[in-house]
Design a protein that fits this description.
CATH superfamily of the largest domain: NAD(P)-binding Rossmann-like Domain
Number of strands: 22
Structural class: alpha/beta
Radius of gyration: 36 Å
CATH class of the largest domain: Alpha Beta
Helix content: 40-55%
Length: 737
């Protein structure tokens, strides 16, 4: 080839020997004539435009699998009114006898960088695509140049190296023996243009010199300096400091990367001040051995022992310092990473970065088993009614009070927090909120905690009756007292049903509630305080709303922290605390569990917030709604302590009855308490944008449940679902004397 003949010419006489790819537009008559001319020479063609269009169409509709007519329609929307024969571009490479058809520039860039998203945000990619990067030295620089081209860093790239590829370079450069003797800048350009033929590349095949340095740095946003010549290393920095151009330099030893932000610090000492005030002029003409003190000064104690020993052998047993392919490849990655961060506007200070693989630290890869874990204790023990030695007319004793408290502890509570405490009184057992129990965003004005206290009191009433102690509940300002009368005839009819109450989050089969089931539920709760949503269309709308609330809770920092504070990821954790939500009780599919674990990381959530993403976080609630039998709203008579306590008793009764009817029940209160905070203007934990979301939630909720007001205390999802496989554990209660 003519290219090879030019490349064998003496470097000192070489002029530009590599032409950029020809970009030919089949819609232009002149380009069509040129295409005919090239094809007439028998050049091979590669036309995968149809596949590229298919990929682009699918990438624009990631949530929908396109095929058949839908795929063809999506493809036609891309080329619009342009006939397919005239769409795209043909690329002809002077160094390779082939014509390749690709998408037009904008669509090509969109699809080629599609899988950079969202590791590189769209706004960042736009900045990167408009940058100009100069790379001096294309041994290490070839790995960097290739990586930045892959990531779409730079629309314009200046490549400089005077050297030709030699056999000794093939221990670290991604090249082959067919390219021996090729100028390294030319080699790099062919690699980059074959990745992206639309790149604007300027070649400096004689390397960087005093004569062309100004041209090399013209309009450059970042210099990546990988020169062997110590004089030119310093001279380029002098020029970059004057022009306020940041500089990166990778040394291929211990993953060391130097960052010099001359754009931010125009008076910064060169090479971090490690050569003092030495100028480039003072370094001109030094031999390799004379350069070693400066190299040692720059690398200092950061140098590996292997490189330090090698430097002492230069011109003795080896003729230059060594470099390894792995080190060069690592350097390409680290330099490209920081080039991307600098050019996309991140805060990257000057200094030295090291990614030393010889001092790696291992991290535990042990984690929870994939998929469902074995449940050795799926349900907590429901206390059997003990044989009571007391006779008729006797009063309850300490063991009786402990039994009642143990049963009451099976009541539902937000996040399974069990925020109650029990104490013996003259007439029986007092129930109160535990003062140490923290309030959360979903425990507005402690209403959720009081609701749980009322549910516990309802079970306590049945437990005392089962023992044979008739009881009544006295509601005081902030406590409840279960007054136990002397023992009479035991009656355990309601006890077991209430103790068997449990959460079942498994998805239902979509069968709606029957008339008998609805009547049975109404039979245990006053009609004014229960509202059923049995309509499928309304349930679908509610599921979408609850999904959006799920996403909201995970994206907000406070509610995210509170949610993950409740979760127990392993059975050992659940047994250790015997509170919180055992992950097994969420009844999730393996891929859903994987999502829960990923969403535990705050950095992942912050990234989703930045992207405006997280739609997948709402999918579970939407699928739950599709299988629901009904949704049930409960409200209190008023928002006083007594009103919420009585609502808690209603909650316990209707939940236990639903379980007895064979229905799975899942509580879903977040939407209610978040909107209550909005109504009370108690939204310090939320941003203005989040408050606007809450206002939208309120509007949508009232459309589904018009009677919604501050008295709403609970939302339950009811479903005809398989039996629950696990139940959250409970702490052993203590009755304070």
């Amino acid at each position: 080839m003519a290219l090879h003949e030019d490349l064998t010419a003496d470097t000192r006489e070489r002029t530009t020997v590599l032409s950029p790819p020809e970009i030919l537009d089949p819609a232009r008559q002149a380009d069509c004539a040129r295409l005919f001319e090239i094809r007439a020479r028998g050049v091979a063609t590669r036309d995968t435009l149809d596949a590229q269009l298919s990929d682009l169409a699918q990438s624009r509709r990631p949530g929908r699998k396109l095929s058949g007519p839908s795929l063809e329609a999506a493809k036609r929307s891309i080329n619009a009114d342009v006939p397919l024969a005239e769409f795209g571009r043909w690329v002809h490479f002077s160094w390779r006898p082939v014509l390749v058809r690709v998408l037009p520039p904008q669509e090509f860039a969109e699809l080629r960088t599609n899988r950079n998203r969202y590791k590189i945000l769209p706004a960042e990619q736009a900045k990167l695509a408009n940058a100009t990067v100069a790379i001096a030295g294309l041994s290490v620089g070839l790995a960097i140049a290739t990586t930045i081209a892959l990531e779409g860093i730079g629309a314009r790239i200046h490549l400089a190296d005077h050297d030709d590829l030699s056999l000794s370079n093939l221990n670290r450069l991604l090249a082959g023996v067919t390219e021996l003797g090729m100028n390294k800048a030319v080699l790099a350009a062919t690699r980059l243009w074959e990745v992206n033929p639309y790149l604007d590349i300027r070649l400096f095949q004689t390397g960087v010199s005093d004569a062309n340095a100004a041209s090399f740095l013209e309009n450059v946003d970042l210099l990546i300096e990988e020169c062997d010549d110590l004089y030119m290393k310093v001279r380029l920095r002098e020029l970059c400091r004057t022009r306020r151009i940041p500089v990166l330099c990778e040394t291929s030893d211990r993953g060391t990367l130097d960052i010099e932000r001359f754009d931010l610090e125009p008076d910064r000492p060169l090479l971090h001040g490690r050569i003092g005030t030495t100028t480039a002029a003072e370094l001109a003409g030094l031999s390799t051995k004379q350069k070693i003190p400066f190299v040692v000064s720059v690398l200092g104690h950061d140098m590996s022992a292997k490189l330090a020993a090698s430097l002492m052998e230069v011109n003795e047993s080896i003729w230059t310092w060594p470099q390894l392919g792995a080190d060069v490849t690592l350097g390409g990655a680290t330099a490209s990473h920081f080039a991307r961060r600098i050019l996309s506007g991140h805060d990257v200070p000057s200094g030295r970065v090291q990614v030393d693989l010889d001092t790696y630290a291992t991290v535990s890869c042990e984690g929870p088993a994939f998929g469902e874990r074995e449940l050795t204790e799926p349900f907590p023990h429901v206390p059997s009614v003990p044989e009571c030695s007391a006779s008729a007319g006797d009063h309850a004793k300490a063991p009786d009070l402990l039994f009642i408290a143990q049963a009451a502890s099976l009541a539902p509570s937000g996040g399974n927090a069990q925020g109650w405490q029990f104490s013996a009184t003259k007439h029986g057992l007092a129930l109160a909120l535990a003062p140490s129990q923290p309030s959360t965003q979903l425990d507005f004005e402690r209403r959720a905690s009081v609701l749980a206290l009322g549910a516990a009191a309802e079970i306590a009433l049945h437990a005392s009756t089962a023992l044979g102690f008739p009881s009544s509940l006295v509601v005081r300002d902030s406590t409840l007292e279960l007054e136990l009368r002397p023992r009479s005839q035991p009656d355990a009819r309601g006890y077991r049903e209430h103790c068997a109450r449990h959460t079942n989050r498994r998805r239902g089969d979509g069968t709606l509630l029957g008339a008998a089931q609805i009547a049975a539920l109404h039979g245990v709760v006053r009609e004014d305080f229960m509202h059923l949503v049995p309509d499928r269309e309304a349930m679908v709308s509610l599921g979408e709303l609850l999904g959006d609330v799920d996403r909201f809770r995970l994206l907000n920092e406070t509610t995210h922290r509170e949610l993950y504070g409740e979760l127990r990821f392993t059975h050992d954790q659940a047994r250790a605390t015997r509170d919180g939500i055992d992950l097994a009780t969420l009844e999730l599919e393996p891929w859903e569990l994987a999502g829960i674990r990923l969403a535990a990381r705050r950095d992942v959530i912050e990234r989703l917030r930045t992207l405006g993403g997280g739609r997948a976080l709402r999918d579970g609630a939407v699928r739950d709604a599709a299988g629901a039998a009904a949704y049930l709203f409960l409200r209190a008579s008023d928002t006083t302590f007594a009103g919420i306590v009585n609502a808690g008793r209603d909650l316990q009764r209707v939940w236990a009855r639903a379980n007895a009817l064979g229905l799975g029940v899942q509580p879903w209160a977040p939407i209610l308490y978040l909107v209550h905070r909005l109504d009370a203007r108690d939204c310090a934990a939320f941003s203005c944008a989040e408050i606007a979301e809450l206002e939208d939630f309120r509007r949508r909720l009232r459309k589904i449940y018009p009677a919604f007001d501050s008295r709403a205390v609970m939302l339950l999802r009811l479903a005809h679902a398989p039996t629950a496989r696990a139940r959250s554990l409970r702490r052993v209660p203590v009755v304070v004397a």
